[in-house]
Structure formats: C-alpha cells, structure tokens
C-alpha cells in the first residue's frame, strides 16, 4: 500500500508542475503586448556595434558587408530565409533588426505590428531610387513609408530547348491542360500558395470576362477559376519546388523540362552547361501574359535593438556601388538609378530593364492577398484561404 | 560546505532520489510534456485573418476544417497507409536477417552483421534521401539498370516514398527483433524438434509467438517514424503527408497546424494500446 500512495503523490506532483508551468506561460503571454508602431527614428546616431538581418540568399554577401563593417563599426549578422513565411516568423521572434521582405510578406509584417515606419529623410540614397518603386502598395501603407526598395525581378518561364519545341511564347505550355498534357510529368511548378497568382495572371489574359485586375485580389469566382486551373494542371506536374537546388537538379537530370523559375536557377544551369532557355529579348523576356515577380523592401523591426546600424545598413545597401553589386550577384534589377553606372556588365541595367517602367507594368509583384480588395469591398480571398486552397490543389 | 551537504543527504533516501531525479524529471515534465501540452492547447485557438495574430479563445474551427475538407482525409489516409506498408515491409525484410544474426551466424558473423545493420545510421538522413532521389530520377541508376529488360523504375511518387522509408527505418526493426530472438533459449527449439515438430511448425508454434512482441516493438518505431516524416515525401514525391501540411501551416496558421499534429498523436495512442495488448512492452 505504501508504494501505491507514493505513486499517487508523484502523479499529483507532476500535475501540479504542469499547471504551474501553464500559469507561468500565460503570465508571460499577457505581459508581452506590442507597443505599436510610430517610434520612427528622428536622427541616425552612433552605431550600436552590430545589426541582425533576415534576408534572401545573396543579399548580404561579404563583398559589401565587410566594407560596411569597416566604415560604420556595425557587425552584420545575416540569417538567410528561404520563403516569405519563414521571414515573417523569424521577424516575429523579435531577434532581428531588419528584413529584406518581398511584397507577400510586407503587409503581414505591417498588420502584425512587427515593423516600424521608415523615416526616408534619414536614408540619403533614397532620393535617387527609381520613381516607380517608391510609394507602392507593398512598401507604403496609408501614405507612410515602411521600407527602402532593394531590387526587383520577374519569375521566368524556363524550358529545355531539346525537348520543348517550338519555343513557348505563353504560359499556356504549362497551364493550358491540352498543351500541358504533352509534357506530363515534366512540368516544374513553384511550391507555394503564391503560385495561385500565376494562374490568375494567365486567366487575366485568357478569360477577360472574369474581370481579374490584380492577381492578388481575387474574389470568390476568380479565385475558384484560378484554383481549378491549377487542379487541372496537377496531374501533369512532375515536381513542385520551393528549394532551388531541388529544381536545379531536376532540370539537370531531365526530370523537369519546362516550368516557372527564378533568374538564379537559370544562370546556375547555364553555368553547368545544361540546355535551358527562357523568353528571349524579342519577346520582351516575358511570356505574352506577363508574369508574377517580386520587389523587395528593407524594413526595420519595431523591436530593433540596433536601429542606428539598421538605418546605416539601409542607406548602404541602396548606395549606387553596393546596390549594383548586390543586383548582379542575385540577377535582378537594381532599385538605385545611379547603380547602373557601377555594374561590371555595362549593359546590365538594360538587360534587366532597370529603367524601363513599361516592362514592369507587365510584372505583377508578389503581394499579400487580403480580404480588402482595395476598391472598398472586402470579399476577396485572404492569405489564409490561399494556403488552404494550396493544400487542396496539391491533394 | 561539502560536508554539510553530505550530512543533509545522509540517511534521507527520499531526498537522495529526489535530488537525483529533479533535473531529468523537470526536463521531461516542463520541457518535453509541457511543450506538447501548449501545442495541444493551441489547436483550440484561431488566427486573426488580418494581423495573423493568435486569438486565444476556445474554438473548434480547426477540427471542423479537418473533418469537413476531404483533402485532409486523403492526406491522413495516405500517411497511415504508407506507414502501415513500410512497417509490414520492414517486418518481412528484418525477420530473416534478425533470425540469422541471433541463431545461425557465428560470433564473428554476428558482429559483422550488427555493424552492417548499424552502418547506415552513421550517415546523415538527408544524404541518404538525396541519394535515393538521384537514384530514382529518370536518368538515374534504377532506370539505367532496368532499361535492358524493357522495364521502368517507379519514378517519384508514393512508391518512391514507400521504398525510401522502408530503407531508412529498417535498422529500427532489425534490432528489436534481434534482441527478442536472442532471448529465446535454443533448448526450446531443440525440444520442439525432439517432439517431432517440423521446422515450419517450430517456427509457427514456438519462435513466432515468442518473438512477436519484439516485432510489435520494432513496428512502433517504423510506424511512428513514417507517420511523422515530411522531408522524404517532399524530396521523392509531390504528395502531401501529414507532416508537410503541418509544415506549410506552421508560420501562417499555428492553430490549424496544432490540430493536424493531434492526428498522428491520436493514431499513435491507438497503435500503442493495440501494441500493449499484443505484449510489446512486457520486456521493457
């Protein structure tokens, strides 16, 4: 009987411990309220000695972080993220000073009170940034600037010219079920809810009666048409990729022959000597419908411990020489208009349409889908719906 | 100081045990079970659609989604089916190996086989899955080897997941069965033969019943490991398993991810209850 009483006591102790732990946790939760935005810096002071960044791969390379450290005394600690979702959760941890957010993360960061407005007067190089990148819906909210543009690019249609003939001029090669059937099992698609926007761009051109304006503001009917199209595409997709090395290996092995990609993989495969092609200059580098793309913004955390260093970094990364270097390493158009004089390839800015607003009119930068359609009504599908739909599409 | 401390513990066995166990038990309860508990509670919360922040009030919305959307039933069904197939495959493959190791092989042979079974565990999980990815690709070695016979490998898909998982978790099945068979005295086998039983009858009536709890113990590993894995499905198929959907929702909709995480827990509890009935825990 003694042992029995003993066990019961132990069990009660465990329960008591658990309850105490829960209470402790609940206590922490309620004292963790955000102070809210509005505390933007008025003057850049002395650096704090370091700056902690969340960024895309290739955005904080030693070639330009080392000179920055020497000049400002701010040591750069870079954390590379692979997707926008990852960036948002890293920023919510409160451990970082700033982030190079794409448009499908910026609104979430602003709404979640994770970032502060940016005082652009404290970033001297902001003035010469391309005008069509300033005050855009993905970096400016209610007329308040929340970040400094870094650069932009379009998602490409890439194919293997040995297998895909004639060269496609439209996304229909992977999105029109009749044409896609020809490449069954060889199609490569981006594995992220934001890929639904690619279908919306296609439908905007091919089914004008749906009345799609922005591929990120879709009402019930438009959204259903886009997801249905992707469900039809599903059996023909050989591989969904979100990790770029996976896509590079699939194209190199012949498992994938045509699909959507980034400049980075296209360059990497070319360097390996693999047969790949993408829409040529004569077609404006884009399939006839246009394409989705991204425009990245440096934002500052509202819990930034090193705001002075972060401001210095934001000015540094858009300074003409550094912005040119960063753009060339990643393969995207620089945001700084003066960067074009500093690129190693003198034609770089022309090739990437840095100063060609007409080209970018056909590129739909990633945005966070919100219920608010932007025209006063709020019957659009929000990002949560997009994530659920993406699960259903993949099945 | 040291003296006084020793004096404090002297003659107080309860205190001695308590001090010894405080660390590990504290970790188990707070760090291990506590975090699990928080996870389960999050399943009853929701996410504010605009700010993406957690709304900490009781709601069954996530469970309704899981039950109402047929896609989640498909995903759970697929995951459990593959886990069952992997378990069955590993049991069939592991039993002869374990039997040879326990009852037939010489001392040296036994040591070599144990090392051979353990060897794959020394290399990284990712390296193993990625090499399977290369082997299964359309220009890979499997298709190359099958081509002369006019055959074609499975390519990426459910079959590939089944193959790779069966490969990955085989050692976790071999070792418990080996340990179980080792415990069967050889004299029982001799006695069965002396009483006129054929080798098959001996296997069926003596060896199998005595080693079955070990097979069930091994199956807990293979089943649970397959149920929770999400990297292999991602690399060698396009299909979603429970883990993939949890991963996709974790940063955006933690409550839904938590609700999904409950599914393998419930499946595993049911499985463990059956395993206990079958005597898998008798020798632990």
- Helix-strand string of chain A: HEHEHEHEEEEEHHEHHEHEHEEHHEHHEH
Oligomerization status of the protein chains = heterodimer
What structural class do helix, strand and pairing data of chain B support?
mainly alpha
The main pleated sheet of chain B reads as:
2 strands, antiparallel
Helical residue percent of chain A? 25-40%
Helix content of chain B: over 70%
Distance between the termini of chain B: 41 Å
Distance between the termini of chain A: 55 Å
Q: What Rg of chain A do the Cα atoms give?
A: 24 Å
Radius of gyration of chain B, CA atoms, in whole angstroms: 24 Å
| β-strand amount of chain B | under 5%
Number of strands of chain A: 15
Shape of chain A: globular
> Shape of chain B from CA axes?
globular
Mean pLDDT of chain A: 87
How many distinct beta strands of chain B? 2
The most extensive interface, with participating residues per chain, is: A-B, 38 and 39 residues
> SSE order of chain B, as H and E?
HHEEHHHHHHHHHHH
């Amino acid at each position: 009987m003694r042992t029995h009483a003993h066990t019961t006591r132990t069990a009660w102790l465990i329960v008591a411990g658990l309850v105490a732990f829960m209470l402790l946790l609940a206590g922490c939760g309620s004292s963790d309220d955000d102070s809210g935005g509005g505390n933007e810096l008025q003057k850049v002071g002395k650096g704090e000695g370091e700056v902690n960044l969340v960024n895309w791969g290739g955005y904080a390379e030693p070639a330009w972080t080392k000179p920055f450290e020497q000049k400002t005394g701010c040591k750069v600690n870079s954390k590379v993220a692979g997707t926008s979702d990852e960036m948002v959760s890293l920023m919510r941890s409160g451990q970082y000073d700033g982030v190079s957010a794409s448009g499908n993360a910026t609104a979430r960061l602003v709404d979640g009170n994770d970032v502060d407005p940016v005082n652009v007067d404290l970033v001297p190089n902001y003035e010469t940034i391309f005008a069509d990148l300033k005050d855009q819906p993905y970096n400016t909210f209610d007329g308040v600037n929340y970040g400094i543009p870094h650069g932009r690019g379009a998602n490409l249609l890439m194919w293997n010219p040995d297998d895909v003939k004639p060269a496609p001029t439209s996304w229909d090669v992977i999105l029109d079920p009749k044409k896609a059937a020809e490449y069954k099992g060889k199609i490569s698609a981006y594995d992220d809810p934001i890929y639904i926007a690619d279908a919306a761009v296609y439908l905007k051109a091919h089914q004008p009666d749906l009345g799609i304006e922005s591929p990120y503001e879709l009402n019930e009917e438009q959204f259903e048409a886009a997801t249905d199209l992707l469900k039809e595409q599903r059996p023909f997709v050989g591989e969904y990729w979100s990790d770029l090395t996976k896509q590079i290996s699939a194209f190199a092995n012949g498992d994938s022959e045509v699909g959507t990609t980034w400049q980075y993989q296209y360059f990497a495969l070319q360097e390996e000597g693999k047969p790949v092609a993408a829409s040529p200059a004569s077609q404006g580098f884009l399939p006839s419908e246009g394409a989705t793309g991204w425009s990245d913004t440096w934002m500052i955390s509202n819990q930034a411990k090193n705001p002075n260093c972060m401001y210095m970094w934001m000015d540094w990364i858009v300074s003409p020489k550094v912005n040119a270097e960063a753009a060339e390493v990643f393969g995207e158009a620089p945001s700084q208009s003066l960067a074009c004089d500093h690129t190693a390839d003198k034609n770089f800015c022309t090739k990437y349409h840095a100063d060609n607003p007409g080209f970018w009119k056909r590129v739909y930068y990633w945005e966070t889908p919100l219920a608010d359609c932007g025209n006063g009504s709020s019957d659009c599908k929000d990002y949560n719906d997009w994530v659920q739909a993406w699960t259903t599409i993949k099945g | 100081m040291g003296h006084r401390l020793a004096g404090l513990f002297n003659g107080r066995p309860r205190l001695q045990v308590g001090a010894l166990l405080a660390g590990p038990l504290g970790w188990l309860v707070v760090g291990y079970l506590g975090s699990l508990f928080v996870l389960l509670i999050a399943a009853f919360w929701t996410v504010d659609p605009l700010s993406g922040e957690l709304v900490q009030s009781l709601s069954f919305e996530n469970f309704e989604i899981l039950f109402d959307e047929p896609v989640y039933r498909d995903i759970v069904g697929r995951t459990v089916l593959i886990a069952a197939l992997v378990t069955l495959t590993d049991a069939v493959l592991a039993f002869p190996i374990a039997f040879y190791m326990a009852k037939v092989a010489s001392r040296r042979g036994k040591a070599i086989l144990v090392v051979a079974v353990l060897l794959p565990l020394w290399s990284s999980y990712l390296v193993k899955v990625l090499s399977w990815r290369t082997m299964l690709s359309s220009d890979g070695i499997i298709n190359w080897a099958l081509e002369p016979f006019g055959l074609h490998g499975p390519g990426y898909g459910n079959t590939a997941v089944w193959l790779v998982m069966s490969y990955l978790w085989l050692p976790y099945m071999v070792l418990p069965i080996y340990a179980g068979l080792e415990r069967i005295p050889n004299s029982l086998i001799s006695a069965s033969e002396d009483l006129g039983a054929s080798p098959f009858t001996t296997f069926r009536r003596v060896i199998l019943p005595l080693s079955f709890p070990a097979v069930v113990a091994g199956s807990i590993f293979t089943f649970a490991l397959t149920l929770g894995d999400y990297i292999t499905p991602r690399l060698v198929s396009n299909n979603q398993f429970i883990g993939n959907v949890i991963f996709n929702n974790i940063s955006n909709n933690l409550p839904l991810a938590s609700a999904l995480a409950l599914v393998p827990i419930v499946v595993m509890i049911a499985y463990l209850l059956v395993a206990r009935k079958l005597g898998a825990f008798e020798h632990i």
